[in-house]
Amino acid sequence: MSRVIRWGLLSAGNIVSQFARDFSVVENAVIHAVAARNGENARAFAREHGIANAYEGYEALLADPEIDAIYIGTPHNLHFEHAKVALEHGKAVLCEKPMTVTPQECEQLQSVAEHRGGYLMEAMWTYFLPPVQKALRWVQEGRIGRVCHIKADFGYPQFPYDSKKRVYDASLAGGCLLEMGVYPVALAWLFMQQDPTDIQVMARFAPNGVEDDLSVLFNYPESVAILGTSFRCKLQNWAYIIGDEGYIAIPDFWRAREASLHVLDDRVDHFVDERATDGFHYEAQAMTNDLLAGRAGSSVVTARDSLAIQRQMAMIREAFADDA
């Protein structure tokens, strides 16, 4: 591969900084520019991460003919708008999760990508982590038998409460479902590849009516998934995929560094990812490779995956909407 994929970063927020740090190990790619609404923030970000170009505002970034791919790390409610305009500028798009805030937006965005022949991928970095991929192979190889239960949660306290804080701000699509609940929902979809036949949700709410604690039960024809997310407390943040012949445990599954395979009380296999990074480089490398190979989309986080995750989060919202 002789060509280098040139990336642009749309936003200079915290998650974009993590992405930029990990990018140093991505091969055949370079971060060409970063853009932020505040020009000084963009320039400071560029200095910190050794990026050659910094833009005030996003239009200059999108219009830069040197850029092949755009990574979007803005608030959830802006993802649709920013991804759409990036695709319209002919850029490949890696958009932070959740890629949109409704299934309808997701479908529209995917339609734009298809119409323009563009590359669009949701930045569900967890799917690319080697321990999660190893767990998926163990299941596919039949090493835990038939999947009976999935348990996954993700929660961190978000104190003090402030209705203007991004995670609580309803105008910015705040709430624990989109902010953190997307991880356990995505994990359940990865291993089940089907919608639940029915769901039960127990919800708690912040003073402004935004959900800040959810317990969710997905009922499938032959199995169940018990999922949780919270702004009120630190949850265990592990995932368990439990079959009738064994189970898999993934500590801190959303940023997984290891996975263990158990039969009854015995650990029979163990995988550890010895990476020196947080793990964002896996998705960046995969997308870079896709672009260099001329592939139309990702085989790891597909359009079907992103739409299913949106659809299931909409089901959860509908289940607790009347209680808000």
Automatic annotation (TrEMBL):
It holds the Pfam family GFO_IDH_MocA_C3. Residues 5-121 form the Gfo/Idh/MocA-like oxidoreductase N-terminal domain. InterPro entries: Gfo/Idh/MocA-like_OxRdtase_N, Gfo/Idh/MocA_domain, GFO_IDH_MocA-like_dom, NAD(P)-bd_dom_sf. Residues 132-248 form the GFO/IDH/MocA-like oxidoreductase domain. It comes from the Bacteria. Keywords: Oxidoreductase. Belongs to the Gfo/Idh/MocA family. This is Gfo/Idh/MocA family oxidoreductase. It comes from Gilvimarinus gilvus. The lineage of its organism: Bacteria, Pseudomonadati, Pseudomonadota, Gammaproteobacteria, Cellvibrionales.
